[in-house]
Write a structure and sequence with these properties.
The protein is about 25% helix and about 25% strand. It contains ten helices and 17 strands. Strand 16, helix 10 and strand 17 form a beta-alpha-beta unit.
Length: about 325
Amino acid sequence: MKACVLHAVAPIETNPLTLTEMDAPRPGPGQVQVQVSACGVCRTDLHVIEGELPRQILPIIPGHQVIGRVTELGAGVSEVRLGERVGIPWLHQTCGVCAFCRAGKENLCEAATFTGWLVNGGYAEYTVAPAAFVYPIPERFRDEDAAPLLCAGIIGFRSLRLSGLTGHSPGKRLGIYGFGAAAHIAIQIARHWGMDVYAFTRDARHQELAAGLGAIWTGFSTDQPPVKLDSIIIFAPAGELVPAALQVLQKGGTLTLGGIHMSQIPPLDYQWLYHERVVRSVANNTRQDGLDFLRVAAEIPVKTQTQVFSLTETNTALNALKHDAIRGAAVIKI
């Protein structure tokens, strides 16, 4: 099979992914082999490639928003059928026995592994995954439209859940900083739930996209919205946005940080935290988050805006993502 392999961490501008011919992986007990049809491109892939995450397994095949068909079943697999279309997300597997897993917080599992970071991912023609951790994909979504749902969508959904504005929240004011793949999905859920969305982004094209998806106000990250906001999500990996966001957050509001990696957060003046404002991070997702999100996404239905690249163009897609040249989400079509 063909796969894009990272042999050494490096700036994406050096095009470090190498298109390689290799044997297709075979499924072990409890696993399925999946023939990949599409894989979403995520900013977390950049963090893996450029060495910004603390653990590093090399060589590695990145990519963790995988759509494909099951082509082989490992021993003991009964919950997935041959030929079924499935999605493979960021959360590859958990131990099931640690205190977090037993408490329903498997996203915090002490021994979790993650697709495209600690195990090979979806920038390849074939990959394997535990059958218990793949998702059935609603038929209404095409492969390339479904791929961004598996990380950008699920993390956006969990960020909304942790923001304190879950479920139908008519008239509640939600701010979103950074308007990439996750935000362009999260805004559709927020609008479906009746929220007023205020979008902060440095790119005028992304402001236009936000307005087209229902944001009632758009501006730059340094701009002041006309009202205080009940809740804010920061999807951009920019720690310097935290003080700015806190200053436009209502008393008792929650500031949710949606990324796995963020640059240094500057010192905070206590008055910005005072009045019971909350700052919290989002760490991965549970399988239930994914199941719940895919159900809601199909009901709305969520419409992803994608820019499609071939497997040979994976470095190009990641460079475009780093430099904010993607409108919506980038997808590798295999």
